[in-house]
Design a protein that fits this description.
CATH topology of the largest domain: Rossmann fold
Distance between the termini: 19 Å
Number of strands: 11
Helix content: 40-55%
Bound molecules: flavin mononucleotide
Number of helices: 10
Length: 259
């Protein structure tokens, strides 16, 4: 039981017993039935003043704990309750490269996530209208459609190559068009590819702050993959044995956070 739930049930008990009506109250995590009448069930008005003050102090401290404790950031997907795909995921893969390793890697992650039962769509930012992106035209139909899809998704993958020690500009021009707090309530997976490990911390110092500025509270541990570990093949991508186990763990964690 979360502290918040504990607080709510205790409040209910206090509120109801103030009027003298007995209600089941949870204490110490165990439900106590109506048959056992504890102090709260007997009605607060019948209590001595010192006992009443102590109860108020307990109530205050329980409520304070509820306020400062971290809010849950995993939201069950509505589709999971209907027996459909577990969650809907959109992957924004930004790279100016026509044969992008980042896109190939993102397609592979998408494939694995489909294997987990999720519905996944990969958006290659490079394929969106360049003039509208550079002119920050969020009303362009293709861009507006992607923005709406991001808003509706349960999970979002944000993938980019490292360029000049940060994510690339092609991704950023799309991120700049997303509405304020669009990632709130979503599970977000950051992914970067780079020429070497020297800039792997760009995940945390560059990409993560942007995601948080967009409202993401639940950013799962991201993936950084060195470009030489991603080989494009005619039918997709071949990952180096050093890279694959870590990536499947990242996908498992992302998937688990969504369900
Ligand atoms: C303009 C440019 C800048 C780059 N800057 C970096 C960098 O600062 N750090 C790094 O590790 N790799 C850097 N790289 C290498 C790419 O991040 C890496 O090759 C990446 O996998 C390319 O992904 P893509 O094929 O999706 O474009 C750079 C590559 C280019 C073309």
């Amino acid at each position: 039981m979360s502290p918040l739930a504990g607080s709510v049930s205790l409040w209910l008990g206090v509120a109801s017993s103030w009027s003298g009506t007995p209600v089941p109250v949870r204490q110490g995590g165990a439900a106590r039935g109506l048959g056992r009448r504890g102090p709260l069930q007997r009605g607060l008005l019948g209590l001595p003043a010192r006992r009443l003050l102590r109860l108020c102090a307990i109530q205050f401290s329980v409520r304070a704990v509820a306020v400062v404790s971290p809010m849950p950031t995993i939201y069950p997907s509505p589709s999971a309750c209907q027996g459909g795909p577990v969650s809907s995921i959109i992957a924004l893969a930004g790279s100016p490269s026509a044969d992008s390793r980042t896109v190939a890697l993102t397609e592979q992650l998408a494939e694995w996530l489909r294997g987990h039962g999720h519905a996944v769509r990969v958006v290659r930012v490079r394929d969106l209208p360049a003039e509208a992106l550079l002119g920050a035209d969020a009303g362009d139909p293709a861009i507006a459609e992607v923005i709406a899809a991001v808003a509706e998704a349960d999970g979002v993958i944000v993938a980019s190559p490292v360029y000049k020690a940060a994510y690339c500009g092609v991704l950023k021009v799309l991120l700049d068009l997303l509405p304020h707090m669009v990632l709130a309530g979503k599970v977000v997976l950051p992914v970067l590819t780079g020429g070497g490990p020297v800039h792997m911390l760009a995940l945390d110092y560059a990409l993560r702050p942007v995601l948080q500025a967009l409202g993401a509270h639940h950013v799962v541990p991201g993936a950084f993959v060195v470009d030489k570990h991603i080989e494009r093949t005619p039918d997709g991508v071949r990952l180096a044995p050093e890279a694959e186990p870590g990536l499947t763990r990242v996908v498992d964690k992302f998937s688990a956070a969504l369900t």
